[in-house]
Amino acid sequence: MKEGYIPQEQRKNILLLTDDIRLHSGVGNVGKEIAIHSAHKYNWYNLGGAIQHPDLGKIFDISEDVNKVTGLTDSKVVIQPNNGYGEAQQIRELIKKENIDAIFLITDPRYFAWLFQIENEIRKKTPIIYLNIWDDYPAPMYNKAYYESCDALLGISKQTVNINKLVLGEKAKSRIIDYVPHGMNTKVFYPISEDLSEYKEVVELKNNITKGSKEDSFILFFNSRNIRRKSIPDTLLAWKYFIDKLPKEEAQNCYFVLHTEIVSEAGTDLQVVTDYLFGEDYKNVIFSTNKVNSSQLNYFYNVADAQILLSSAEGWGLSLTEALLTGTPIIANVTGGMQDQMRFEDYRKQWYTPDADIPSNHTGAYQKHGEWAFPVFPSNRSLVGSPPTPYIWDDRCNAEDAAERIMELYQMGPKERKSKGMKGYKWAIGDEAGFTSEHMSQRVVNNLDKLFETWKPRSHYELINTNQVEENKLPHKLIY
After folding, report:
1. Residues with Cβ < 8 Å from 470, sequence gap 6 or more?
2. How would you class 55 by CB atoms within 10 Å of its CB: exposed for 0-12, middle for 13-18, buried for 19 or more?
3. What is the predicted pLDDT for the residue at 469?
4. What is residue 471's predicted lDDT score, i.e. its pLDDT?
5. For residue 414, cis peptide bond before it (omega within 30 degrees of 0)
6. Are 437 and 188 in contact (CB under 8 A)?
7. 436 pairs with which residues across the strands?
8. DSSP string spanning 11-58?
9. pTM of the prediction?
10. 48 - beta bridge partners?
11. Residue 254: helix, strand or coil by DSSP?
12. According to the model, what pLDDT value does residue 470 have?
């Protein structure tokens, strides 16, 4: 029996508000892994969000499937498909009907504004736990009411933990705030060596990409959505700068595979960009647009010599985590949670943790990092915003700098690249990083246990001195 096992009827019931955990979205996968790996201790009810959900009106009990995966006989994991993440009366009814002991949130806080508006009512009986993330500074003081509406804030990135504390100020002391980075399933993403049966699939995929070339090829991989902040045109430009420095014969044996949509209203027309940059002379920019399952995606990472992600804003960057778990080096812009995965080392020779003095390493304060990482430091920070998020930095890196990192990897050769990638793999699955489903879920369980042991219901009323106006000042340096 798994350590900490509690019989089903004695478990706390947790309402999970996020994507339908059967879907292959980032937060959906995270929610699924947490539910599966903690099913021995908690019962989960997922109000599974989607846009125009095709299963609306149905309820799915996937407990038997979870039992098969976990070896349990009495798990309880139920999914109720929903358009969006819920609304106030629906949550009230579910709390009563399913005897809910806590609400667990995953995704952007603006999707839960309706829930935070009734937190005074909810938290008198039911605590709210928020697995949250924020892309960048300045610390979003406009999120303060959201953070104050939660009893536990689990930050996916070290930066998010720091932001939660900076924004809450003294009120941070009355809440559980902890670091719970994303973790992926190591039975899905893993290095495929020659002795594994799947290796033939990797070889076949490589042959399809390189058109059967017998010479040593170099393959760069990109896996993410075609949206503006992913900076895909800049990434293509970096690839252009890189191949232009190579002799033609070598350039023709270098391949850039992008698993993304070619055209997107939220991004751009990547085919037009590619045609403009590369013309007829170079045909090795390859778009993978078909949906692939997790096994096939694992093959792509294993084929790749490196994974690249130059997002100007990125809370975490799951494709980097997936690459690390396959032993593949990463090239990434130093921003948001991506810098966690590069393991920068501070002046104490410790894994860098943001604070009010150096809230982010996007300025390059610390240069030493894990051997598996090839960081590209932003060349500028632009303060952008919108009505819901009035200010946030946009960290833009230079395509020429990214091209240099690609060249650095290229010149190493396959053995050295693989050696560095495997060092990243060992770190990622180890206890310090713990970017695995098991580590992530155990961190969640530890915090849930602590919450249920210490939680005090919200008081029925709160006295506010309206003669005192709280100063809304910036809680950290802007230049550092």
Report:
1. none
2. middle
3. 60
4. 66
5. no
6. no
7. 184
8. SEEEEEEEE-TTS-SHHHHHHHHHHHHTTTTEEEEEEEEETT-TTTT-
9. 0.95
10. 18, 81
11. strand
12. 66
**Residues for the chain: how many in total?**
480
Rounded (10°) CA dihedral 219, 224, 225, 231: -70
The answer for residues whose C-beta is within 8 angstroms of residue 412's C-beta and 6 or more apart is 420
Token pair recorded at residue 441: 């879920």
What string of H, E and C letters represents the secondary structure of 182-232? CCECCCCCCCCCCCCCCHHHHHHHHHHHHCCCCCCCEEEEEECCCCHHHCH
- C-beta separation of 441 from 183 below 8 A: yes
- Which residues lie below 8 Å from residue 53, measured CB to CB, with a gap of 6+? 20, 81, 82, 83
The H-or-E segment that residue 258 falls in is strand 254-259
* Helical axes 232-244 vs 399-412, angle rounded to 10°: 50
pLDDT at 15: 98
The DSSP secondary-structure symbol of 6 reads -
CA distances from 263 to 104, 235, 291, 317, 391 (A): 35, 16, 15, 21, 28
Question: Low-confidence residues of the chain, pLDDT below 50?
Answer: none
- Name the token pair of 395: 């960290």
SS3 336: helix
The H or E element spanning position 407 is helix 399-412
Please state, in angstroms and rounded to a whole number, the distance separating the CA atoms of residues 173 and 165: 9
Q: Is 327 helix (H, G, I), strand (E, B) or coil?
A: coil
CA distances (Å), 114 to each of 94, 122, 149, 172, 366, in order? 16, 12, 11, 22, 40
Give the pLDDT confidence score for residue 477 in this predicted structure.
87
User: How far is Cα 57 from Cα 78, in angstroms, rounded to an integer?
Assistant: 14
